[in-house]
């Protein structure tokens, strides 16, 4: 690849906000984007990230009540935000009883409402060339057992991505979805540690392994850089081929 082509992926000088960045995929994306040259502001619920980094500015905050303040910090003195990665998410398996509806709404509140709130706060500080990446899931296009809140909220986030691509395209702002497959994180630790579940999910993946958070960095750099200048409204699946594989 020639040097001019490589420069398409350069994030130097770009200000990017990453939510859900205290651990797992969000933390890996924040670090990877910083390594690619971006000035990264990361936000999470934990008081501190699991792996502190001098190249990532981390803030502990509640996205529902502090998003305007966080976006302003991410924009910095220039008052401009070049990228937003909505990675904050929860999974709350279904439970019988009166508490189920509360858990369902809590899942939507984090996985969908908070993402849209971040977009609304970020767009006024974005100009042409801005990029928004919503982290969805393979669950956005397929059902999972006993987890209606997660799959329906991720499916809604997928469609919100497409709606925003239509609305923000005239402003020169791109909006895409990054859909992970089975990634070894704290959120999937129970399945990863269960031999039968672990093997079933590994075997259904074309590449024959679970993913790592770092496996998503390359796709994120692509979507947030000039390399994807003509890509919007797309679903980028980083799932080892899980969604490509039918019944076997």
From TrEMBL:
Any GO MF annotation of the entry: oxidoreductase activity, acting on the CH-OH group of donors, NAD or NADP as acceptor
Matching SUPFAM superfamilies: NAD(P)-binding Rossmann-fold domains
Biological process per Gene Ontology, one example term: fatty acid elongation
A Pfam family reported for this protein in Swiss-Prot or TrEMBL: adh_short_C2
PANTHER family on file: BLL7886 PROTEIN (PTHR42760:SF135), SHORT-CHAIN DEHYDROGENASES/REDUCTASES FAMILY MEMBER (PTHR42760)
Similarity annotation: Belongs to the short-chain dehydrogenases/reductases (SDR) family.
Protein name: Gluconate 5-dehydrogenase
Lineage, uppermost ranks: Bacteria, Pseudomonadati, Pseudomonadota, Alphaproteobacteria, Hyphomicrobiales
